[in-house]
Target: GOLD domain-containing protein
Amino acid sequence: MLIFNSLIWLLLIFFGISIVGTVNSPWYEDLPAVAMDYKVHIDPGKEDCYYQYVNPGATFYVSFQVLRGGDGMAGFAVRHPSGQLVLPYQWRPNAEYQDQQSTGGYYHICVDNQFSRFADKLVNLYMTVIRYDQWELYSKELEELNLSVENFTSTIQGVERNINQMLQHQNHFRGMETRHYNLLVDNNAYVLRWSLVQIIVICTTTIIQVYFVRKLFDVKSSRPRA
Model:
């Protein structure tokens, strides 16, 4: 049973990049750079394989590392789209493979846990596909728009300053809110305390007045003398 959490984050550093995909291809195939990070759980005695598409001329990189389980090692192999086994199976804690200029196609990546009959493994898979020709194309387009790294840096710094100002305002408002809340709590306690004191005084005064008024109308009975 394969349980994995995947994180696909795109290295879109420059502005003006549009995503264009074909109907029968994944949406990320036309991006200049893609990085994927997988956490894969492999049961004892099992093997899991994956396919990753790489554009012609792109740089493909894949690495694996056993994070937890058993002896901390597993089998790892990479097969080229042509069918050639470019990274043979070996029982190891980690491994990596890189193709600087791929001919294109789907790479076959397998993680093998067949030698471990009782211990499952948690494996980290990291893959990147970088198309440097597309980066150069986008750089030229940005140069035509007079967008330089300096302008980009100044824009980021302006955004950072604005974020810091917003954080400062939020912290200031949180402090004011806490102060006002504590003031309301203190006022509420003050009103309740003096209200109880006044109620006790009024009740005591009423009882005393009733007692003395009754004493005024209290008639002592006297027995007649013979």
